Amino acid sequence: xxxxxxxxxxxxxxxxxxxxxxxxxxxxxxxxxxxxxxxxxxxxxxxxxxxxxxxxxxxxxxxxxxxxxxxxxxxxxxxxxxxxxxxxxxxxxxxxxxxxxxxxxxxxxxxxxxxxxxxxxxxxxxxxxxxxxxxxxxx
Length: 139
What we know:
The protein has helices at 4-17, 75-91; strands at residues 22-25, 38-45, 50-52, 57-71, 102-105, 111-113, 121-134. The chain is of the alpha+beta class.
């Protein structure tokens, strides 16, 4: 049976997979960036939990990361569209179907990356904070 953490990350990956961009999880950056862009979900790490007693609950603010990458001549507009689509996908259900208390993305910090012999890339890491509670830090 998957842990709460894995269930939430899988749900986030599924939500991102519905977008036109190719979505991967925990993969390395491929040699080619698809025309619609590329998203790579990184599991990130849970924070130090707040703990409540009676009943015992561990409250996490897990910071996952989405690497967003676009390539091509119109990469500024493509990157803006990709980031807006991520925000819209998360806003449709901030609890990922009741799996977590709240999901919120932080602002990206885009960078332009030169690629020898090809169009430049525009990329950013978009932190996503997943607020959830569990009865056991290992479940």
